[in-house]
Design a protein that fits this description.
By secondary structure, the protein is α/β, with parallel strands linked by helices. The chain is built from 7 helices and 7 strands.
């Protein structure tokens, strides 16, 4: 039985538009009421037709459910969100895909460049996500680095969207990578969507249950330091909106 397919890019007018306090963080996105720090409410962009890479979390945690306040595996809603958002976005820009997590010879080597940016990429992206069986660990730093090199970030502008459930579990250093991308790149922007990110269930720092369900991805610094957008998404609609805002060209307001 075929899984259901299912869901516009925030442009930053310039690196100067980063907010001094939260640097363009979005805590919980809703489809028609998005709050952006230091950005125009008209979410058009000069660069929204440039080539971009999607880095998609296929690690084992995308199949988790139950104990972590999640009623169904994250991958189900992620598939629906991609299917709703990507076809329209792919009409305006070439998209490529990296999936990390499954199919490696060990837990951390499953980082797979499915293809570089290409025209009409919606069908191959959605097919890859539909066929994905989550597994392995979260080598998100290595995956984002692969996407950057695929875009030739050292010689041309590069836009990357990372969709992740939060943690780096393969020893990568996302903040160090952010420094490298800014230092060595022409104009590299990484957007990060933290989808149903969970904190440590047993943590001395946890004050209440909200601390567990309102955690942020360790990859947030990739967005903050490169002038991208960090978005937290807890629902299908929030995830759809985040994908559209970070990659699409549509004006929402």
């Amino acid at each position: 039985m075929q899984r259901p397919h299912g869901l516009s890019r925030l442009d930053k007018p310039g690196r100067q538009t980063k907010c001094a306090m939260s640097r363009c963080s979005m805590r919980y996105l809703v489809p028609f009421a998005l709050s952006f720090c230091g950005a125009s409410s008209a979410l058009a962009t000069d660069n929204c037709a440039a080539d971009a890479m999607i880095v998609f979390d296929g690690s084992g945690s995308m199949a988790e459910m139950g104990f972590n306040h999640i009623d169904e595996p994250r991958i189900f809603e992620a598939r629906r969100a991609m299917a709703e958002a990507i076809p329209q976005i792919a009409q305006d820009r070439n998209l490529g895909l990296v999936i990390y997590g499954p199919d490696g010879p060990d837990e951390c080597s499953g980082v797979d460049l499915r293809f570089a940016p290409r025209a009409d990429a919606a069908t191959p992206i959605l097919d890859a996500v539909d066929q994905l069986e989550p597994g392995g660990s979260t080598a998100l730093t290595q995956a984002v680095k692969l996407a950057a090199h695929t875009l030739q970030f050292e010689t041309r502008p590069a836009t990357i969207l990372l969709v992740t459930d939060g943690k780096e579990t393969c020893g990568g250093a996302p903040c160090a990578l952010a420094t490298e991308l800014v230092r060595d790149g022409v104009d590299t922007t990484v957007h990060v969507i933290g989808f149903k990110v969970r904190g440590s269930f047993f943590s001395w720092d946890q004050q209440n249950e909200n601390d567990y369900t309102a955690a942020e991805s360790v990859a947030r610094c990739l967005a903050d330091d490169t002038g991208g957008t960090y978005a937290s998404a807890e629902t299908l609609d929030q995830l759809i909106a985040a994908i559209r805002v970070t990659l699409g060209c549509n004006v929402l307001f």
